[in-house]
User: What shape does this take?
Amino acid sequence: YLKRRTTKRPPLPPGPPADPFIGHLRIMPSDQQELVFHEWAKTYGDVMHLKVFGHDIIVLDSVQAATELLEKRSALYSDRPNFTVYTTMGWDHNVAFFPYGRRFRKHRKLLQSYLSQQFTVKFRPIQEFNARYLAKGLVENTRDFKYYISRYTISVIMRIAYGHQILSDDDEYMPLVENVAYAQNNGGPPGGTIAEGTAERSFLRTQMESMSGKDLTDEDIQDLKGSAGVLFAAGFDTTSSSLETFVLALLHHPDVQKRGQEEFDRVIGDRLPTFEDYDALPYAGRVTMEVLRWHPSAPLGVPHRAMEDDIYRGMFIPKGAIIIPNAKGMNLDGNVYTKPTEFNPDRFLRKSEGGNEEPPPVATFGFGRRICPGRHLAATNLWIAVATIFATVNITKAKDEGGNEITPEIIFESGVTSRPKAFSCNIVPRSEKMIRIVASESKNPSM
Ligand code: HEM
Assistant: This one.
């Protein structure tokens, strides 16, 4: 009896009541899962167990639990579940879905060195130019603002991954906006130019050069193409949806736009911002951080998988369990953020400066050995776009036929990546002077 007691397995983490056999299938939300999980966590705790189709699912709803498991015990939690849907869609070269192992480490190493904080400083001229090109689009305003946002994020990635700068709407690669899977599987369009040695410096070219002299295997070539395609697939949607979230937040908070514009006028005024101005434009920095907190564009992160049985805070986590880090839930944690649903960039300010000293939203970019390798690029892409938008245009609510302002709902689509539900707005240049500045500073790049 004593032996049986000591070897008894601790209980699974708590969770909502389940049905026999089918577990939580019936109550699994099909929409806004992140918000429903966050509500459940208020009753069952920040480590919650669900069971669906025989699979154990552990939802983590606090940064503390996610850090302790996915970072401190990363040797046990860096695997991915089997993403059958994505692999049957042909996304099998995407490192984001690789199980933990040799091929994962190889891809991750390639990406990590190219996207490190230090290395991404080299991309600044590319980001600055493309932010100006974004402003040019918004000032001309002949298409929906979402088009210009997508063109911006695609252009930066195309240039960094493949060495190709998009300079016109007729660019043959613009259809990639609609066809991420194509880029993923074909290693990006300008592959030919790389072989010919004419492409600008880029991820593909750098990796090819570092391997020159070696005999490249088919797997090496596939891996190079695959990881360049991953930059596109993982970086495009996430960044453009965050910029849409920024526009949505401005419509609800004209005061935020006003303060961003006042900061720009006071500090810079008669030219467009560059990364040299980063420290001088702290409000733009806080707004960027609040966008990433308010609605993380991958609200449930990307699931990890437990590689062994584990025990955490006296709860049993079975081998094979799917671990879901609920980034949105963590960013709405009322123990960490005051009035968490409010968009308030000043929450990050020091108390002595009138803020709450609340921490940056680390959950947005995930955890441990799987943390987003593109996070430095993403954060700087967002910052330069935010600062340039403050500098150049006024964004206000659209009006209906009767001249009444339309206030868009704060509601986000469900999915692995999530953007605001479609909404419209008015975008006009801030002044004649700004139109001239944008025209003269968005000329072809010398990068
Ligand atoms: C706002 C923009 C972005 C957000 C919110 C975001 C978020 C995330 C998250 C939550 C993960 C999963 C982390 C985990 O498993 O714990 C991830 C993985 C990844 N991200 Fe990002 N990301 C963004 C932009 C980018 C960019 C710009 C790139 C590259 C150009 C990129 C490349 C990747 C890759 C390759 C992975 C897979 C990493 C792995 O499985 O080891 N991301 N991202």
Notes: The first helix runs from residue 2 to 6. Residues 158 and 164 are 6 Å apart (CA to CA).
